[in-house]
Design goal:
Blueprint: E1 10-14, H1 18-30, E2 37-40, H2 46-52, E3 55-61, H3 69-79, E4 84-89, H4 94-102, E5 107-110, H5 115-144, H6 161-173, E6 180-183, H7 190-201, E7 207-211, H8 217-225, E8 226-227, E9 239-240, H9 242-245, E10 250-254, H10 261-273, E11 275-276, E12 285-286, E13 290-295, H11 299-304, H12 310-316, E14 319-322, H13 332-348, H14 358-364, H15 371-385, H16 406-411, H17 427-441, H18 446-452, H19 457-467
Helix pairs in contact: 5-6, 13-15, 17-18, 18-19
The chain binds adenosine-5'-triphosphate.
The site of adenosine-5'-triphosphate has 18 residues, from helix 7 and helix 15.
């Protein structure tokens, strides 16, 4: 099936020796996990295969009858500069190798090279080729500002530019088999993004989700890898692991930042080797699922502090997306509120109410530490309490109970700095600035502005009059 081919482009083996072609294809499939392979034994037909098939990488023998490897290398480099060529030669001569690289070969291996090294070299070339495909694809999408499958994102309500870029990026990496790392605060919609990645990949298998937070290492291994009967006390039946259940699909590992050190090693090995051992088995199984992971933690920082393995972090972040917190995409607030109120109205069998005018403004002044999930909960809470035609503000009230403790202010990034070389402003001047800022944020709504800075509305009105010079100070 087209969508289960790896890599997304074909690998063409060109060699006049039938036995080498056969053994190389088997090694590529078994050791490398590559299954998108074409073979060509007659060098005269090689260029036609390249013209007809979606070839991205060529493994080329040098010494062949009819057309030599060197001639073919030159033809490919000139007609198909986007195709990578790896030379597999019987000759171990530095000069020949250098000449091939000069002619445009990506790498040069002697046929007797240890299989592991050869496969690793081919993996590197595949990875590079994938990246250049993705780059081209990404550029094309950004330039034309298109989404090929907008329906995949229909349930992710947003009009934010950064989110749209995330969608475009996800479309461009959809066919890749490499892991995807989704970062973002709790409640920003990471799980939704994982669903979209799975749908876009058009893989035939299911999406299987596992929350790995708090799993001890043995449970982690058993959950992912499964076990054979009798593997440990109590294992009276064999059980397939989640990797197996996600075959030809996607395995989504949530809260990856909480993974224990021992489990990090297991996950790294799985990603590096593409193989795993079910507990109690000494026969490796090949992973047939794509891995998507998510975390609300800062993995870069965790890695620097030695809490998360650097090598694993680098493997995971081959493709990464960062979902911005709701406070950084406030334009989405109105859309999301409307969407959740409709959803709640449907679910509760109520008519959708009118939204009070000051509600959107009020929400804009809130940080949403719980992000979209928090807004959704508020909307559902409001709808369940809702009786009259206009939505009650009661469920949103707690948003207003502003906490002005120094810790919270520091958290909000409020740190007032005064210029040491200038005299301090007066209390009156500071207070005027605060009043002006509150009025700006509340879009001129006095009752809202007064709540934002913790004074009564008449007190605010009085200050405003003073500010406008209507009343003496
Ligand atoms: N843009 C959005 N449009 C509609 N619903 C959304 C959007 N973003 C998040 N949600 C909803 O908010 C809730 C939280 O989303 P989700 O579980 O995907 O967040 P998360 O980032 O995975 O959170 P956590 O880190 O806690 O696992 C879900 O009910 C989801 O459907």
């Amino acid at each position: 099936m087209r969508n289960n081919l790896y890599p997304q482009f074909g690998i063409l083996l060109i060699d006049d020796e039938e036995s080498f072609l056969r053994s190389m294809s088997i090694a590529l499939e078994r050791r490398g996990g590559f299954n998108h392979i074409y073979r060509c034994q007659d060098s005269r037909k090689a260029m036609q295969v390249i013209a007809d098939e979606p070839i991205g990488l060529v493994l080329l023998d040098l010494t062949m009858p009819h057309v030599s490897g060197e001639e073919l290398l030159q033809a490919i480099a000139s007609d198909y500069p986007d195709i990578s060529v790896i030379i597999l030669s019987g000759l171990n001569q530095l000069e020949v190798a250098l000449n091939c690289i000069r002619l445009g070969a990506y790498d040069y291996f002697v046929k007797t090279t240890e299989e592991d090294r050869l496969i690793e070299g081919i993996r590197r070339a595949v990875r590079l080729q994938e990246m250049s495909f993705e780059n081209r694809e990404l550029r094309r999408r950004f330039l034309s500002d298109t989404l090929e499958q907008p329906e995949v994102f229909a349930n992710i309500i947003t009009q934010d530019k950064a989110m749209r870029s995330v969608f475009q990026y996800l479309e461009s990496i959809a066919p890749s088999q490499q892991p995807v790392l989704i970062m973002g605060e709790s409640g920003v919609g990471k799980e939704q993004i994982a669903h979209a990645i799975h749908t876009l990949s058009a893989r035939s298998g299911p999406l299987v989700s596992v929350n790995v937070a708090g799993l001890d290492d043995n449970v982690f291994a058993d959950t992912l890898f499964g076990h054979h009967r009798g593997a440990f006390t109590g294992a009276d039946k064999a059980r397939a692991g989640m990797i197996e259940q996600a075959a030809e699909g996607t395995l989504f590992l949530d809260e990856i930042g909480d993974l224990s050190q021992a489990s990090q090693v297991k996950l790294l090995r799985l990603l590096q080797e593409g193989e795993y051992y079910p507990l109690g088995s000494d026969r490796p199984k090949r992973i047939r699922a794509r891995i998507v992971v998510a975390t609300h933690q800062n993995l870069e920082e965790k890695q620097l502090q030695g809490e998360f393995r650097k090598d694993l972090y680098y493997r995971l972040r081959i493709h990464q997306v960062e979902i911005p917190p709701l406070r950084k995409r406030k334009k989405d607030l109105g859309l999301l509120l409307d969407y959740f109120l409709s959803e709640a109205a449907d679910e509760l069998g109520k008519a959708k109410p009118t939204i009070p005018k000051e509600l959107p403004v009020l929400l804009e002044n809130y940080d949403f530490p719980g992000n979209v999930r928090e807004l959704r909960a508020m909307a559902f809470d409001a709808m369940s309490q809702h009786r009259a035609r206009i939505l009650s503000m009661e469920a949103f009230r707690r948003v207003l109970t502003a906490d002005h403790s120094p810790e919270l202010l520091a958290e909000k990034g409020v740190a007032v700095r005064f210029n040491e070389e200038q005299p301090l402003p007066s209390l009156q001047e500071i207070s005027d600035l605060l009043v002006e800022e509150a009025m700006r944020r509340a879009q001129g709504n006095q009752s809202l502005a007064s709540r934002l800075i913790g004074i009564s509305q008449p007190a605010l009105s009085k200050r405003l009059k003073k500010l406008q010079g209507d009343e003496p100070l």
